[in-house]
Amino acid sequence: MVLNLRDYKNIKDRRQALESHLSLDLKNIASFSISEEIASNKNCENMIGVVQVPIGIAGPLNIKSSNSKVQNYYIPLATTEGALVASVSRGCKAILESGGVQLITKRIGITRAPVFKVSSIKQGSEFIENVEKHLDIFKKITETSSNHLKLLSIKSWMIGRNVYLRFNFDSQDAMGMNMATIATTDIVKHLEEKTKVKCIAVSGNMCVDKKPNFLNFIEGRGISVWADITIPNSVISNTLKTTTRKFIEVVNRKLVYGSFLSGSIGSNAHMANILSAIFLATGQDAAHVAECATGVTTAEETQEGLYISIYLPDLVVGTVGGGTNLETQKEALSIMGIFGGNNGKNSQKFAEIIGGAVLAGEISLISSLAEGSLAKAHQVLARGKKISNIKYQISNKSQKTNSK
Predict the structure, then answer these.
(1) pTM of the predicted model, to two decimals?
(2) Which of 21, 40, 130, 238 has a C-alpha 20 to 30 A away from that of 253?
């Protein structure tokens, strides 16, 4: 017998039917606090319940943003990897003791890139020229599709009988992928009607969405983030338990040479770890980590100690829409004071916080590798050995475990 879950409109009935069909008890999946109506209608089809992920708090993260205003933030991290929260917390402690992290962000925009089929390169060239002449028309079509979306630019490529148009939109505080897709579809319909050139797919993989790629690495996507800090020698020694020279050697041999030899896009220690934990906690589309984690970490020795920076060229996040409207994710965003729409200011602030958290995670892991304590930290934190006795930075006590 085949069970057709679409026959069940109610979450409870669907889950009980599955339990009966598979002879299982899904009582833990059945226990949750988020709105069934919102989640099942907007976020998940054939919903039967939830999978719960532990959420911890790292911080305080001391940030100096582009307007030089200094603020402390507590960062919600949803993860099943023991040692991750402690690792980011230790990095936050080093940042706090070093006077705070400097952040700069630049709004690039969300992209969607359809592919069109032309008869020849001559028609393709004429088609591209026609598109470039009518940017104002496409901007009006975009604003008709959504009051919160603006078309910024269009970039074109042609190969053989294929033309790719990369539409770049400002989606304010929303991540904006669905908005961009709807607007692009409306523009495509207009182009097909006026030029008789057929669109083969509204996404031709030049967006580039949810895939590691060099185009977004070079052009940027969403919001680009830069963060840096100089850590005094005393903090490197007392808090990070290593030396500047050892730290830089790990950066060179692991991040530079190792990344080059493996063909990695980007050069970092574990940016995906921090990004995925924040994304899960705050209702972001977790698949975007595939592209967002292609960042770069650099380090140099200075007279004061260690200069370290991170660069995230492609950070696709939002504070409204999607999974951010679920109750638990909304609360996680509220911890940082950035839930909801604010003319793009909340998503930009969110990008700053993520940049600082990523830098904290890079600082701590590289220090642990330089010191040789990575395995020990996981033995203590990831195997349940006296985890309740670990003193985190959140309590303003000295952390006694060298975490990741």
Answers:
(1) 0.91
(2) 238
